[in-house]
Design goal:
Radius of gyration: 22 Å
Largest sheet: 4 strands, antiparallel
Amino acid sequence: MKTFARKCSLILLLAGGWPVLSGTLLADDTNAPKTKLEAFEAQTGVTIVKGSVLIGSVNAQNGVVSIRCKESKDAGTDRKEFGLAIEVREGEGLAETTVIDYDELDSFLNAIDYISKVDYRVTTLPFFDVIYTTKGGLRIAAYSSTRSPGTIQAVLHSNHITNTRVLMSPQQVARFQSLIQESKTKLDSLRTGK
């Protein structure tokens, strides 16, 4: 009878622990690297050299956005990955950093260009959102304001950990686009060794 009770206890323990275990497994999966650069830097058993340079910052309406070029290298093989680290700081709160792979930059620049030029002709309906999201979760958007009808607002949103967002004027979006283009030019020169 004791053996049966022990088996039942073990089954109940496993059944009761499964939701906790499966929740942990799901949580670990959501923390998996989303970009090639993040996966490259997360390697274990390998010496990684990480270099970066601040290209510039944009003072947004309610925060600051900073753009860094990144170059990471496997010291043993000299294999490299390149990208950007975009830091979004809302007000005096914590900063949130999202990584963008080099191979996403052309698409990202095209999206910023489109978003910077969007107007009410984008749809026949009175309200709209135009959104582009990178693999790492950085979102740039333009939307028609419901609080100020006739106004189009731009927002840069990082949802990596703390759901940070900053509002940007058309001039701030143009400055951000310029810094992303400057960053891509810098990475192009690093990749070609010039």
